[in-house]
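User: I'm writing a tutorial on reading structure tokens. Could you give me a worked example: one chain, its sequence, then its tokens, then a sentence or two explaining what the tokens reveal?
Assistant: Sure. Here is the example chain.
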Amino acid sequence: MTDTVGGADKAEGMPDNERARKEIRPMTALYAPAPAAAPATDARTARRARFALPLRRIRPESVLLASGAALVPWLYVLARTVPSTAQVGHWNVAWVGLDALEALGLLSTAALRKRGDDRQRLTAAATGALLVVDAWFDTVTAAPGGELAMAVAMAACAELPLAALCTALALGRGRRTVRDDPRLTPAKRLTPARRPTTE
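And here are its predicted structure tokens:
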């Protein structure tokens, strides 16, 4: 079998290494991985990208400010249109649900605080708000006489003090760690660059 290509290359005066490079090039092109196709963008991705920019421009404080300002005239509408008395269905379910949420908030705040979890601030804030709402609706919906006196006593002795405690937990500092303990001298505190020393 004769090497026609090699003979032609030699006849043209092409060196052997150049001929080998010429033969390798088509093989590498044959076995080279195909270029990765650009990721296809479907209509949902394009729509999401179109709405992402306007949503980033909306600041939460602007939404809160506009909502709070819109509620001011709504208070006047409520005062003029809502009747002073109403017959309500599922009254007991409403109060049981509210007290169940308060119990859940108090228990979860206590459990998170015992574990040293800083998320207890969130549950404390929500529970404090629920307790204030409970005290408010207890007193304004109570019938005059003994029922109103009981509602005021519950608000003054239980609900509002617990709400104040929850607010203090939500706004105050977390549980004190070894590093924050003022009784320890700087030499005894744990620092990242130094081992604790004893005096």
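What the tokens reveal: Confidence is low (pLDDT under 50) at residues 187-195. Residues 146-171 form the longest helix (26 residues).
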